[in-house]
Fold this protein.
Amino acid sequence: MLLHISEQSSATLQEQILVQIRARILSNELATDFALPSIRGLAKDLKVSVITVQRAYDTLLNEGLIYARRGKGFYVAALPESDRSAVAVARFETNLQQLLDAARRDGLDETQLQQIFTRALGKED
Amino acid sequence: MAYLEINGLAKHYTGYALGPVNLQLDCGCAAALIGANGAGKSTLFRCLVGSVRRDGGTVSVAGQQTDEQHVLWRQQLGYIGDFTPFFNDWTGHKNLRIRSQFYPAWQSHKAESIAERLQLDLNKKVKTYSTGQRTKLSIVCALAHSPALLLFDEPSNGLDPVARQTLLELLFEEIEAGETALLYATHHVSEVEGLADRLIFLNNGTVTLDAIKDDLTEKWRHLSFRSEQAIGSIPYATPQKSELPYQQVISEDYEASAAFLQQQGIHDIEISRLSAEQIAVEILRNNANGANHVS
């Protein structure tokens, strides 16, 4: 599993790992029952401490996105399609909210925001 | 469970003192021991394995006290240090056979597979071995009985790059199995960056820093920014060589340093991560400078 740790990102290592694995699960890129790398294996590849990967996996466990088999490791959990999109929607709304807050602080108004959003979706009329 | 527990270990020579050192490594922990030449790394290892008598303190390995009355703990130890005794006129094979007698947990097939992976010819007499080949044989001896504690003092000295990589893979497998703790002294932090969770810094005989690697890599950053005036004494930051108006610092708490710069009206700050190796160099340099200030 190829993850990318950014040199410049202000996000913590744990967040970067978490966000990338989560995105791949939600986008179906990692299928149900896919075996995630061992904690130490991923720590080695990314040159991070074991505890960092452990915390990221713990969060995914709590979110129900992965499950553990005792002594075997971690696997992608089966998510009903509806759950998958519900989680994705919730996540997108949270991210969008942050962007909107920042944009409003920068002085963009509702009309501008709507224009940007429509343009980004490629449906400008 | 603590696989290595050091309490108040001390050793005094004239003009030099180690300790008191307190350290604990849990099962499954891999720690890198880092320090300048003469910081006391090898003395610490020698005190731990008992080749040098310690002046004070206690050490336990996998729950067993290590003192002269007890010897069983040695079976829980895999050590690579300055010297592993071999019989020079015997082949690698025969040396391993003799050694295996002292370790009930010795696995011959494991010993052979490690030798093969290190490309070590066990049919040759040890006296024909190069330094690197002797080290390879030491590695076989340190791992064949799957000990609870691995004490490796610059084990990659004299090893070629391929063997060094193999050594790291072997150690990774030992740690991954989860029944081992590793203390690995090295001058090349980048070598163990993928293996070590903890970085332990030794300076002038004392542990000056014992930290989770990622706690360091999260906080230490390289900051570069533009300012027509030189900005002196940024908190937590050490200035790097730079030419106005471009300035660079390395900070051990980048959020604090960046906040300070923002107060000075500097907002365009480029922040990038540092490797564990770069951080270690900075810490060692600060240690050295600190020592200079005192003397």
Remarks:
- Residues 66 and 76 of chain A are 4 Å apart (CA to CA).
- Residues 13-76 of chain A form a domain with the Arc Repressor Mutant, subunit A fold (CATH 1.10.10.10).
- Residues 81-105 of chain A form the longest helix (25 residues).
